[in-house]
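The following record pairs a protein chain with its ligand, acetyl coenzyme *A.
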Amino acid sequence: MRRARIISCASYLPESVITNDDLAKRVDTTHDWIEQRTGIKSRHIAAKDETTSDMATRAAQRALEKAGLTGQDIDAVFLATTTPDQTFPATAVTVQDKIGMGDKGFAFDIQAVCSGFIYALATADNFVKSRQVSRALVIGAERFSSLLDWNDRTTCVLFGDGAGAVILEADDSAQGTKEDSGILSTHLHSEGAHRGQLYVDGGPATTQTTGHVRMNGREVFRHAVTRMGEVVVEALQANGLEGKDIQWLVPHQANKRIIDATAQKLGLPPERVVLTVEKHGNTSAASIPLALCTAVEDGRIRSGDLILMEAMGGGFTWGAALVRY
Ligand code: ACO
């Protein structure tokens, strides 16, 4: 059986760090309010001329270097983003060019807001399993700061910028069991009736402007706890596993309280949950690969570990992926 294995991962964070105290100078908020409600203490913000494709390319190049590969070894780029460089072309084709793939393979963007990386991973996994792709770059990259209304304290304190990338490689030696290395299963959901709870109030076909993030925080919180709790159970049950079998929960990093609720549902102690929200804020589609790479680079996640990733975002969209690293 063929499985898609993660053979490399890397990330990129912009240099500039904005603390909660910095934000308190701009809007009516405090470090304590932000930290207690969300767990966020600081976030990275892209430089004025730093684009989503710049950050995605840096993460992709680092992932390639770590694997000893070049762009010519990649068949496809799946880039999850809500903040493309331009309305079109896809930011993924800019990355394809910048990493030297030339006309090899194909590249496209995936838009599922904060669930984007799970959607991109699921898409790439299916291309690998159907033998159309042998090696893929899966990237989550966001310049979310461009979508923020910096006078709206209910949203501007929550988000940050960054990028993370993984390389998937086909492995035809898998046995088709939960002991295999690679992606064991992915689970995607959406419910468009809730699209008005978290959205951007602009777009090419409506206002012809980029717009700003608008959110009903309490409703988003309520749905996030419910849906992420459901989808992690769905992923475990699909593989005949229980919470105790998971070595690492690598959740979307939106809010520590939402993450704690999911960990509690799984019966996982805090030391088995990868948390980066404190330093990164919510980087939307970039948050899971940023967290994954943090724990791989500091030696917590090792080969053979079972990892559960989950996310929820605007739409609503939500999903999970179970991966043996
Ligand atoms: N600083 C100080 N006070 C604030 C701030 C702020 N930055 N923002 C809001 N407040 C005030 C509100 O105005 C309100 O004041 P009032 O009682 O006088 O009206 C009070 O704080 C409480 O506001 P709530 O919105 O009820 O606060 P809550 O406890 O729900 O926390 C939060 C807000 C942090 C946004 C929470 O609802 C949340 O995390 N929701 C999920 C949002 C999210 O994660 N979105 C990301 C995208 S989706 C995803 O990734 C899952």
